[in-house]
């Protein structure tokens, strides 16, 4: 058999193996989407009101921090004397501390000359240590970003969950700027998927939520037990979640508690966001996968495997941007160049697989199905079910985002791949929703 035929067969075998590995996490995501009909989990209303500390790390956030803090005091349906807002002004050279203090926050100033510590995890570590030093008996904490808004019953809903025995939880994540432009519509739908579909199904099937974003709630007894905040990576929220799971904690989803954040409105903004996500989570996977696999067996807990499969999308993005297009360009060129247009032609040449026409048909059907089912249908379903939580008054405001959903998925895949080879740092984010002080 000619060497080029052998090479083609070997590369095809490798490609088939990779497609199988890629397909496993995709099957999980399809399962979440098709179980959308499961009812959401709600927690019993509690008459007891716990004491809360709100922790907000901030680096040069003078344009939004005042409005964020004031909104908490003015809008939350929760006793004002039972929550405090702490803003950690981390290496700020603007009026972040001043505006936060004027709005009613307790400001903790951290000026650290070490550039290696100019990431949010060190601000959180410093903040929780100072909060523990106060000796105030807070029951649980809520971590927010400087630009976040939350719905008016957010604290009450988290309190209900806490009083029901929940020690770690995440909220429903939505967007402040969903309808800003076509990019944010598609982007917002992509990020909302994990709240409306994945997180709801995880909660209903008794799997752990991915507590890795703003609005997370943590029992302060956990913070006291570990002496503050024990993660200093670029993706400190994900690391904190994994460590607590390894210790046996269960992580939950409080769907009616909604946090609104400023989503990327351009390719550049998405790239900056995904640098941190891709580079940081890839390192966490290499670091924690063996322990997570072992604990999946020891604790008989599928949540560890589910999280590994979910974060493996980082490497799937890499394959989708490199190997997959390279292989199919090569395969089409090889089959066409050799005149192997049908399966019979390929078999006669010693190739166990389709000819050129069959290959193009298979690829076309697969891409069409992915774009229609995993893309447009998924986006339309999200718009139909949760348009109000996404900041729209009418469904039609978000319909264009549903049809652009597949295009954003491609953008997301590319930026995650580039992020794998980037060195992320904590930088000031471009705000898209105007000044809110």
Q: What's this model, at a glance?
A:
By secondary structure, the chain is of the alpha/beta class. Helices cover about 55% and strands about 10% of the residues.
Which architecture name does CATH use? Alpha-Beta Complex
Computed CA radius of gyration, to the nearest angstrom: 24 Å
Shape: elongated
Alpha plus pi helix count: 15
Order of helices and strands: HEHEHEHEEHEHEHHEHHHHHHH
Average pLDDT rating: 89
Task: Give the helix/strand layout.
Blueprint: H1 3-34, E1 52-58, H2 65-75, E2 83-90, H3 96-102, E3 106-110, H4 120-134, E4 140-143, E5 149-150, H5 154-163, E6 168-175, H6 182-204, E7 216-219, H7 220-226, H8 236-246, E8 251-261, H9 267-298, H10 303-311, H11 313-321, H12 323-337, H13 343-348, H14 356-386, H15 399-420
Parallel strand pairs: 1-2, 1-4, 2-3, 6-8
Antiparallel strand pairs: 4-7, 5-8, 6-7
Helix pairs in contact: 1-12, 6-14, 6-15, 8-9, 9-10, 9-15, 11-15, 14-15
What are the defining features of this structure?
437 residues, alpha/beta, Spore Coat Polysaccharide Biosynthesis Protein SpsA, Chain A, 8 strands, disordered C terminus
Architecture overview:
This protein has 437 residues and is α/β, with parallel strands linked by helices. The chain has one domain (1-39, 50-431): Spore Coat Polysaccharide Biosynthesis Protein SpsA, Chain A. Helix content is 55%, strand content 11%. The protein has 15 helices and 8 strands. The chain has helices at residues 3-34, 65-75, 96-102, 120-134, 154-163, 182-204, 220-226, 236-246, 267-298, 303-311, 313-321, 323-337, 343-348, 356-386, 399-420, and strands spanning 52-58, 83-90, 106-110, 140-143, 149-150, 168-175, 216-219, 251-261. An 8-stranded mixed β-sheet has the order 3-2-1-4-7-6-8-5, sandwiched between helices. Helix 2 (65-75) links the parallel strand 1 and strand 2 (83-90). It is elongated and about 80 Å long. Residues 433-437 have low confidence and may be disordered.
């Amino acid at each position: 058999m000619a060497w080029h035929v052998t090479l083609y067969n070997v590369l095809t075998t490798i490609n088939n193996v990779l497609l199988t590995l890629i397909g496993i996490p995709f099957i999980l995501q399809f399962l979440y989407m098709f179980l959308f009909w499961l009812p959401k989990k709600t927690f019993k209303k509690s008459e007891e009101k716990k004491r809360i500390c709100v922790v907000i790390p901030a680096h040069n956030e003078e344009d939004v921090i005042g409005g964020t803090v004031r909104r908490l005091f003015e809008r939350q349906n929760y006793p004002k004397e039972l929550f405090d807002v702490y803003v950690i002004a981390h290496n700020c050279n603007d009026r972040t501390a001043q505006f936060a203090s004027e709005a009613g926050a307790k400001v903790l100033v951290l000026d650290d000359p070490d550039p290696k510590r100019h990431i949010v995890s060190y601000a959180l570590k410093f903040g929780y240590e100072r909060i523990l030093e106060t000796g105030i008996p807070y029951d649980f904490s809520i971590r927010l970003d400087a630009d976040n808004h939350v719905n008016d019953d957010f604290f009450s809903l988290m309190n209900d969950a806490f009083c029901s025995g929940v020690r770690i939880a995440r909220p429903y994540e939505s967007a402040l700027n969903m309808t800003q432009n076509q990019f944010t519509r598609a982007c917002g739908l992509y990020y909302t998927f994990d709240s409306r579909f994945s997180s709801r199904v995880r909660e209903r099937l008794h799997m752990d939520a991915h507590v890795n974003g703003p609005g997370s709630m943590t029992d302060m007894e956990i913070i006291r037990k570990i002496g503050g905040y024990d993660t200093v990576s670029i993706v400190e929220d994900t690391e904190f979640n994994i460590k607590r799971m390894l210790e046996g904690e269960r992580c939950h989803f409080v769907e009616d508690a909604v946090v609104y954040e400023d989503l990327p409105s351009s390719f550049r903004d998405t790239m900056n966001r995904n640098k941190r996500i891709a580079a940081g989570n890839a390192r966490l996977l290499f670091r924690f996968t063996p322990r997570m696999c072992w604990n999946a067996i020891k604790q008989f807990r599928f949540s560890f495997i589910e999280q590994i499969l979910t974060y493996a999308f980082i490497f799937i993005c890499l394959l989708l941007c490199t190997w997959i297009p390279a292989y199919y360009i090569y395969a089409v060129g090889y089959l066409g160049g050799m005149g192997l247009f049908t399966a019979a032609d390929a078999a006669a040449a010693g190739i166990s697989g389709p000819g050129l026409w069959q290959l193009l048909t298979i690829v076309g059907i697969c891409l069409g199905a992915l774009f229609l089912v995993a893309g447009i249908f998924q986006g339309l379903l999200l718009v139909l079910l949760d348009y109000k939580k996404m900041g729209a008054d009418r469904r039609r405001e978000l319909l264009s985002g549903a049809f652009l959903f597949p295009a954003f998925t491609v953008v997301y895949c590319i930026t995650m791949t580039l992020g794998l080879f980037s060195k992320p740092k904590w930088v000031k984010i471009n705000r898209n929703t105007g000044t809110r002080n």
